[in-house]
């Protein structure tokens, strides 16, 4: 006598994407809509995220380059004298030591010829009386130097990654909202069906 119960089948290789497409008498129209929504959302994110990331990086780099050019025109390089020595880095000669800066009191002369004092970040291991190059604005106050190409590149990359992440989160949010609406539709349909069928099940035979 042939078996009446079919043998179990292995799960699909990609269950999250394809299990809803299998033929089944229990498959509802909303299940197909949910699967279509997931595929459309995934395709939209995969196509949009890279393009938006590249466009954002290009726009951000252009804007930062304009800012750097403006800073190069408006800012002034001055030679400042350390009024106190800066601390020594624990690993002199290392890459970290070359990039680490320490606050120290300095004296400089602004564009009007006025001698001023303040605190600036300087390399480590400099004695009092050493000279460092700093940047001032139009008022003669110390300020950060103009953005360098590496800083511009890193900032543009940050904006690019942010745009890609925002695109993915937007797609996930849209899919979640769509699924919740489909779930509410299912619940409403079940309520209607139970209203029609429930009394016959609960009434005495």
TrEMBL record:
<protein>
    <recommendedName>
        <fullName>Proline rich protein membrane protein</fullName>
    </recommendedName>
</protein>
<keyword id="KW-0812">Transmembrane</keyword>
<keyword id="KW-1133">Transmembrane helix</keyword>
<keyword id="KW-0472">Membrane</keyword>
<feature type="transmembrane region" description="Helical">
    <location>
        <begin position="35"/>
        <end position="55"/>
    </location>
</feature>
<dbReference type="InterPro" id="IPR039708">
    <property type="entry name" value="MT1774/Rv1733c-like"/>
</dbReference>
<feature type="transmembrane region" description="Helical">
    <location>
        <begin position="156"/>
        <end position="177"/>
    </location>
</feature>
């Amino acid at each position: 006598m042939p078996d009446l119960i079919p043998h179990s089948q292995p799960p699909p290789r990609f269950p999250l994407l394809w299990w809803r497409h299998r033929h089944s008498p229990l498959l509802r129209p909303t299940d197909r809509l949910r699967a279509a929504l997931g595929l459309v959302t995934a395709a939209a994110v995969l196509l949009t995220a890279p393009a938006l990331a590249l466009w954002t990086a290009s726009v951000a780099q252009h804007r930062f380059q304009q800012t750097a050019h403006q800073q190069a025109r408006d800012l002034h390089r001055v030679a400042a004298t350390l009024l106190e020595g800066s601390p020594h880095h624990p690993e002199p000669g290392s890459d970290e030591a070359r990039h680490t800066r320490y606050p120290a009191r300095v004296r400089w002369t602004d564009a009007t010829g006025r001698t001023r004092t303040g605190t600036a970040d300087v390399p480590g291991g400099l004695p009092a009386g050493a000279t460092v190059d700093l940047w001032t604005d139009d008022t003669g106050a110390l300020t950060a130097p103009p953005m360098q190409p590496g800083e511009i590149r890193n900032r543009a990359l940050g904006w690019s990654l942010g745009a890609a992440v925002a695109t993915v989160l937007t797609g996930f949010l849209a899919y979640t909202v769509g699924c919740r609406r489909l779930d509410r539709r299912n619940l409403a349909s079940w309520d209607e069906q139970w209203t029609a069928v429930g009394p016959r099940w609960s009434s005495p035979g």
